[in-house]
User: Fold this.
Amino acid sequence: MNEWLHNPKKFAEGNKMSFAGLPDAAERANLIVYLNSQGSNLPLPAAPAAPAAGAEGAAPETAALVGDAAAGEKAFAKCKACHTIDAGGANGVGPNLAGIYGEAVATGRGGFAFSDALKAKGGTWDDATLDAWLAKPSAFAAGTKMSYAGSSNPQERANLIAYMKTK
Ligand code: HEC
Assistant:
């Protein structure tokens, strides 16, 4: 059920459910518990000893992850539709991301027209802010123009951040 709700297309290639899936693990868990309460009542697995990583628990969990810049460069392929990252690269659908790590959010970038939503966030791009942004842009800055659903994989996000640090 978890795999199906996460990515129906991957679970059963060619299936008829036109639903992209739920990247948020806590949301999937809540749904599964709800479905289970509707007459099936299968025994629930015991809760892990360590506090479960919910939406808010994501930061400490990822803080322990070590990003792999080479893997991040590969993962960046999906960002390239909208972003260049080498110094002097042009802005496209999204801004050029050279040197983005440690920079102010939605600032400069050759006059890129950021959304008011992202401009209103303020702050700088560090491990925590980039991780939250890449997990779900629309949750980090509701109304953002970055039409990217997010990466639900903490290791992939850590890799992407490690890669951006090298640029
Ligand atoms: C479909 C196009 C698209 C894709 C794909 C995309 N982005 Fe973006 N990105 C944007 C846009 C547009 C913005 C500006 C958002 C705003 O102003 O609300 C942005 C903004 C950003 C910013 C903030 C830049 C700043 O100066 O504050 C970062 C960091 C970023 N994207 C990283 C990524 C990464 C990493 C990926 C791949 C995992 C990615 N984006 C995928 C379009 C995209």
User: Anything to note?
Assistant: The chain has two domains: 2-46, 60-165.
